[in-house]
Amino acid sequence: MSGSQVGVARELRVLREAIEEHNFSYYVLDNPVIPDAEYDRLMLQLQVLEANHPELVTSDSPTQRVGVTPVGGGSVVTHYAPMLSLGNVFSKSELLDFDQRVRDQLASRGFELDNIEYVAEPKLDGVAVNLRYENGVLILGATRGDGTTGEDITHNVRTIPTVPLRLRTENAPVALEVRGEVFMPREGFLAYNQRVLEIGEKPFVNPRNAAAGSLRQLDPRLTARRPLEVFFYGIGLLNGQIRPKTQGETLKYLHNLGLRTCPEWEVMAGVQDCLTYYAQILKKRNELPYEIDGVVYKVNALENQELLGAVSRAPRWAIAHKFPAQEELTVIKEIKFQVGRTGAITPVARLQPVFVGGVTVSNATLHNEDELARKDVRVGDSVIVRRAGDVIPEIVKVIKERRSAGSDPVRLPTKCPVCSSEVVRQEGEAVARCIGGLVCGAQRREAIRHFASRRALDIKGLGTKLVDQLVTRGLVENPSDLFGLTLEQISELERMGLKSAENLLETLNKSKSTTFNRFLYALGIREVGESTALALANHLCSLEKLMAADVKRLEEVPDIGPIVAANIRAFFQEDRNCMIVNQLMRCGVSWPQPVRLEFEDGPLKGKTIVLTGTLLGMTRDVAKQTLSALGANVTSSISKSTDMVIVGDHPGAKVDRALKLGVMVLSEDEFNALIKSDH
Ligand code: JCF
Fold it and tell me: Which ligand 1 atom is nearest residue 298's CA?
């Protein structure tokens, strides 16, 4: 290595260690110590440095989670120690029997105990995995398989952010096999399915299937896009270090190595504590960010675990205490069609009310036309409904054997059930929509509800019932009408006294002071969610600029692609929408001027730069971010105001245009020198 390479190697090490430490704080301790933007900057610095020194890239670098080429998965892996599954109990008495068996067996070996110490933790509904670290570096990931042999899923496991590629220790064991559960948190699952439905594909039935399907992906780049996480709960093999003495110590040991454990785990003094824990977790179930189907108890002392041993593949020292079923049988009374904010028509089944997973369920979504056809749900059918956490209940399947003769398949209506406008399903889309727009009462109502919702203008007290009344009485047609309501109009509504009317007026008034991103989100532009709204606000800063932005300018905003850009453009090309926006401004809706995200004072401040061709050393996104971080404005087309064009491999006609206009042209090497120089 040359002298400068030694310097770079040290810089790389410092950066990687810092990033790993932040990963630990963020993923394992759940307590980030720096803002996300700062973390992104460190990561970017590392990416740039590695791009310039590809010979110094190591497989455990935080940048190396996703391999570039898909792998042929499926090779078989033998676990060092068998991966055990768990026996189940469903009731208090079965649990007491389990505890009695544990005590009897230990007594027969000379350990007379009144109370057995257990460690309890929630039982996640995911996929069991085994990871192997050698000298602290992740070298293998496998599914449980039959307990003895599993499938090699190393490339996919590496993409899970909560799986450390390197253990967080100076003194790593020679070999360590850890067992854990890979799962998809509820929020990620919902968002993922939402996206899948939008592109007209088949959604996952539950987070468990989603996690399993994602881990089986052949292309790790696809796995990397699935929001997977992991909790570790046990050790299969530990070479070169002293084993912890209890399950509790095991969890602490794993945690200290940077392996995430479930934060809910607790030591129980005896089986009575287990019952209390079970009740607590059952109550907390829907607040947990992941789905669980019970709790697990393990005899705490590993010495006792060894004495107890295992029968076939289930340990005698651990048991799963399952929650009551989340699936029930019921009957379809009616199938209705709801109209959403964007006109999307959703079939909804009205059910004979049934108690599932702790609540009474009387409606279940059927998602869209294809789902309706696929499940072939008909009025009068006996069906299995499933309720997963606080997710909208779903129909798992129809019991066709019980279907009475003469029932008809259900079709989507051709006219909107609310406004009788045409219902149209565009090619390539999964959803059919009412084309009535704001003529449609349902769409008007939903648009106003969205506008007032918590993450939009947060107009507290303007609930569904109230919005319904305002719309049906014709008092409110669009969001700006809300701010024209008078005390008299409001107090005449049902269940509205003078006092509550005054309160509502006050809230309406307060909600006018908002932020630019909330306002943009509140407008309900198709596919402009909270994060897109924030990106728009940060990059376009003012409403005037946004309303004037063409598709090209919009696409320069990070994460905005051609479709969303076109939606935004189309929204502001509609006179009616501009009128409503202007009306809102006139009513006094306002926000503080957003501060530009990029460093205003970067060394490339104010420079307009265009990238063309393929850069060999870094992705276009990284190049774009690097330039932005230095203060440059990266655009896609060349004009007289362009300051520089950076030319990669196979550039297009842009180079000719740049030369013609006399714009400065930089090669990739010159570009690298530019971003590395101290300016
Ligand atoms: O969360 C789980 N699904 C889970 C599964 C937790 C545990 O502590 C487990 C397990 C499967 C086997 N422990 C064993 C021994």
Answer: 8
